Amino acid sequence: MAERVAILGAGMTKLDDRKGGQKLDDMVFEATRAALLDSGITQKEIDSVVLVGCDEFDGRSISSMLVAAAGGSYLNDEIKVTDDGIYGVILAAMRILSGLYDLSVIVSWCKPSEAPVSNVMNMRWDPFYHRPFGLNHISTAALMAGAYLDRYKGSDAAAAAVAVKNRANGARNQNAHLQKSVTIDDVRSSAPVSWPLRALDCAPESDGACALVLASAKKTREIKQKPVWLEGFGWAVDSYYLGERDLADSPSLRVAAGMAYRQAGIENPIREIDMAEICDFTSYYELIACEALGLCGAGGAAHLLQEGTTRREGAFPVNPSGGLLSSNPFVAAGLFRAVEVYLQVSGRAGRHQVPGVRRALAQGSTGFCAQGNAVLILSAEG
Amino acid sequence: MRQRAAIIGVGQTPYRSHQNFTIPELSQQAALQALEMAGMTMDDIDAIVYSMGPSQFLGVNDPDKWCVDSIGGRHKPFMRIHTGGATGASAAQAGFCHVASGLFNTVLVVGADKVRECKDSQQVLNTIWDPFYERRFGLTTITMAAFQAVRHMHLYGTTEEQMALVAVRSWGNALGNPLAHLKGKISVDDVLKSPYFCWPIKKYDTCPSSAGGAAVVIASEEIARKSGRRPAWIKGCSEFANTVFLGDQMGGRAQMDFADSDILAMAAAEAYRQAGIREPAREIRVAEMYAPFTICELSMVEALGFCGKGESGRLNEKGFFNREGRVAVNPSGGTLCTNAIAIAALARICDGALQIMGLAPEGMQVENVRNVVCTGEGGSFQFHAVTILGADH
Description:
By secondary structure, chain A is of the alpha/beta class.
């Protein structure tokens, strides 16, 4: 990209199994306020607010009505994306690049503790063909895992290793929902959920909200905060119908990553990028995503795990925060990935900081079996 | 702006009940029409923005994902925008930013809604309110509009007859729009004698629940110039928000009054600034407005700067807002005659673009249109979006 967009600051709530004492607007306010303070700016200075939420999770038919003001929209700009939170970063970046806006908040939230999650998911299916099967986010993720396991025999061991790795990472992350390590035996003896997924192959349900502040290059120079640059972004969607998709792969993620890599001038991602935070809604999806992101060839993700490449101490850490297997705020999950990557690149990730991160990747997904995917590349270089 | 952007294709289905078509089908019908007008096929589109408001009217969550295949979205950038009733305007603005950012040259903005097939849309609309404070009062969009009406009547002496005239004009205008849901020659008396839904809002003061699809193709300047038609340039777009709580929108420390669409005025000021419009009533010939109740239109024409606060009722009586008047307001019949919520604000942009392109149906086309303002409104009269379309950029 010729003109660039910078990230000035971030904020997030603790991820919890149940934020009983906070309404949605309280959560959004906490995250937004933290992001503004982190950026050294006030609500009056921002001229763009991009909200990302999901009505059906929130039990409201236009949930942005409630949270808009808490997100900085009172007598101010407002727009809402209804995909994964990471799409908000993309829309805000395009708004800034178009010259209409200079300083944008992006905030996303989810409170699954108060939502009938399985019903919300099943209702996402068309009423004629898919819904009567009772499909939800777990059973569809299991179809995806099964397709991968069928193509790459023995990959269940690598999937279990992903769960062990990410839960160990989460144990170092004070913001994570689950902060307890697990062993391979724990994973393999955990309750069967939907073949081949066991309980510890699946992400929990976590409440949380997070926010980022994006700025034009011009505004960034004025504010003089040391920024992290958005070097590239890409997104794409796949077919709705699972039968028309290759579930052992993630083609829309390949397209999204290709677009982001082109913008950032990246040819060899595993060499040119230092780490990634991705939406591992199951242990298997981390394997699939590593391949679709071009970190290895098709079927090569198990090898990355064996070599320890994606461990926190490895050459290319994936999900040092613990990922979704440690905390899964559904709609907000991808924006949490972007916040984590921002903190890693700015060297402020705390106990799970990876040393020397200069350039990192964040990925988010939306829809069943990651129908839609989005990728951001963040860099310290100005 | 990295590059200019214009609408070069418009598509809409007829608005009525569509029992036999699903959302993917209605979206496809609108998309294909817009592509045909633009001289394109699905393969020519770089990215898609899906305009989808509350999904509860449909009973399918995230229905945009269901539509991906029918509108040629597979393996393309695709996102859904949802700002309640303002959704269509917000989606068009997002589409504009896709092009103006320099990242894409052709973007399809498309959506559909089936409010008509919902058993009780007002029951759904009660769930837009906060479950702790406001939902239990039985608030709906109709009762909300009644609050605005009584406030406008109290402050400015606006009458039920003046509101009725808005309905008479809109229904008459819709006779020239083959796609409009409701239309006809009605009298002020018909409106006044129609049943009260919530005083002073009567049946004819209220929009219908419609089903249908709408789409626009937004293109970069280079592609727009090659299209062989007059494009509708997007000259300005802006959206602003207020607090959700009606009680906080006026009185106390609020800076505004619920009678006035002050948030719309803020959005309009910014969009006019972008478009270089200083005297709206002189420079803008057509307004396609998201005014689902007669009172909304009276309040909104004031906020758009066509007249002073409290003057709209009187000017409306004088024909100021007729098709041949100073500013033709809703020559399509507007949202009062057709309201498929998720795309109602996009329909305003479709009808506005047709006026600029000179392609509106004969009974709807206004002469010498250089600038059009299109609006969208959502939530508790809380979100307002303004788009300025022009024959020149």
